[in-house]
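Lab notebook, design round three. We kept the backbone fixed and only want residue identities now. Task for the bench partner: fill in a sequence for the structure below.
Input structure tokens:
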């Protein structure tokens, strides 16, 4: 039985005092939840957030990292830098990074391997554009992205990886994939993982849905066979709404 995982992706939002207030507000709900709760916060909130989640069940993640250990990469943050302050998760390959910061399947793969090697748990994002969807390429795109992201990842490492299926046309647009559509895409991703690693592993991998998830549509998504929670953007910025999503995943 897979556990549901609700992860907030704050993107470039929230100052440290807002982060701390948010965490204190949702802590009671997160502590009594059956699902896992992760907050992926901006770098500048990491330290404050990690201090504030002590004695709670909330886990903290970053939103990106570089694949090199150290060196002349102005403005970048390494996996080691995250790990040494006790960050547990890191989002890799979010579509906004692929779109605005030229991330490719190759750089995503390098980051995934580095994250795992360093002891961070990657949340790997895959998803098709509207054009690709309309051309009937969804299945090809999401299975290819998944396979490439996981190249070189060993079987035993899959239980420390989360995949987030995020159709790009649904991110921040208010348009959600229907629960059935999202579930079918996630099943395809699971099938691809099965081809590489076998059914036992594929059945255990956590695969979230992301893209305009909110308190009103989450329940239907969570009632499906294969959607193991959500990566939540906009609706993770308001404590009361995020709490409702956590409650729905119980
Ligand atoms: P959204 O973002 O919930 O605001 O659509 C999701 C994401 O980008 O992870």
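Proposed sequence:
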């Amino acid at each position: 039985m897979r556990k549901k995982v609700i992860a907030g992706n704050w993107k470039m939002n929230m100052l440290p005092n807002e982060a701390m207030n948010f965490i204190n507000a949702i802590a009671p709900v997160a502590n009594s939840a059956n699902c896992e709760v992760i907050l992926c916060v901006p770098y500048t909130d990491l330290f404050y957030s990690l201090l504030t989640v002590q004695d709670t069940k909330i886990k903290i993640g970053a939103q990106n990292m570089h694949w090199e250990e150290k060196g002349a990469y102005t403005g970048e943050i390494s996996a080691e830098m995250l790990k040494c302050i006790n960050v547990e998760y890191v989002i890799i390959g979010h579509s906004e990074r692929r779109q605005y910061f030229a991330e490719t399947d190759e750089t995503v793969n390098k980051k995934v391997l580095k994250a795992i090697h360093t002891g961070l748990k990657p949340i790997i994002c895959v998803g098709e554009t509207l054009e690709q969807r309309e051309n009937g390429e969804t299945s090809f795109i999401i299975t290819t992205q998944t396979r490439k992201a996981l190249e070189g990842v060993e079987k035993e490492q899959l239980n420390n990886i989360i995949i987030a299926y995020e159709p790009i046309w649904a991110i921040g647009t208010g348009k959600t994939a229907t629960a059935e559509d999202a579930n079918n895409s996630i099943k395809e991703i699971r099938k691809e993982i099965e081809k590489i690693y076998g059914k036992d592993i594929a059945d255990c991998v956590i695969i979230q849905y992301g893209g305009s998830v909110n308190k009103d549509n989450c329940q239907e998504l969570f009632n499906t066979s294969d959607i193991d929670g959500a990566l939540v953007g906009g609706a993770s910025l308001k404590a009361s709404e995020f709490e409702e999503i956590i409650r729905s995943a119980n």
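Keep this in mind before ordering anything: Residues 179-197 form the longest helix (19 residues).
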